[in-house]
Amino acid sequence: MNPAPSTTRRATRRRRPVNRLPLWVYALLGVMAFVSVFPLYWMFVVASTDSATAYSLPPHVVPGGNFFHLAGLVFDIVPFVQALLNSVAVSTSIGVGQALLCALAGFAFAKLRFPGRNTLFLIVVLTMTVPAQLAVIPQYLIVSKLGWVDTLQAVIVPGLVSAFGIFWMRQHISSTIDDELMHAARVDGATTWQIFWRIAFPLVRPAAFVLGLFGFVNAWNDFLWPFIVLKSPERYTVQIAIKALQNSRDIDLGLAMSGSFLATVPVLVLFVFVGRRLVQGIMEGAFKG
Fold this sequence. Notes:
15 helices; 72% helix; MetI-like_sf; transmembrane; MetI-like fold; cell membrane; 0% strand; membrane; transmembrane helix
């Protein structure tokens, strides 16, 4: 008499080996996690005490009770709330712009046929070898001619498209979208824009989301270009506001660390909510690439 199927399944589950990682792998991951988190913790320790904590030996590793006092000074010295709102507007615009525009350019390079396509794509890739600092002067001249100096669009518009984003989306679309699918859509009467928006973009949305998130973080942390084009305190981004906390002669590390910690919290909150989608998008791109 044959055993019951449920009994066989339970026996199979019991006999199935469990893939466990070696202990040294968990130890290594723990060390890497500690090394990654410790700078943020040390920032909070200094921000909750004073500048002397950063230079004391042995170093203090326990937070103090001075954080809210220093945070209040940050909001009193510079318009930090406005700077946070400006950074949210700039970073969100750049993140959404890169997700959409880079996907559109990547779709054109991957699936459309037009003269000079390979040459133009080669030029786009070669621009990644040019340091961003070399583009500051011509970029500032263009912004000045447009009358955008000391405006947020001077920070937003140059960051809406990136060469890496175009390369990323082009490679992802090439490996994800079949030509037969596009031919079938054209037979049904779909235009090029409809093929991109209704077929291609939904399929590569996870990769576009990852690209947009990277663009958001890079724009949030950007200092050089906003420091050059933004002059008025009410238009500062958060990184420029942190710079404004410093005196011309000395640096109050406690005050600077308080501002830096306050500027880091929104990004941490963002990753708490979108961290899983970020990992899924990266893994999907890795397997399909």
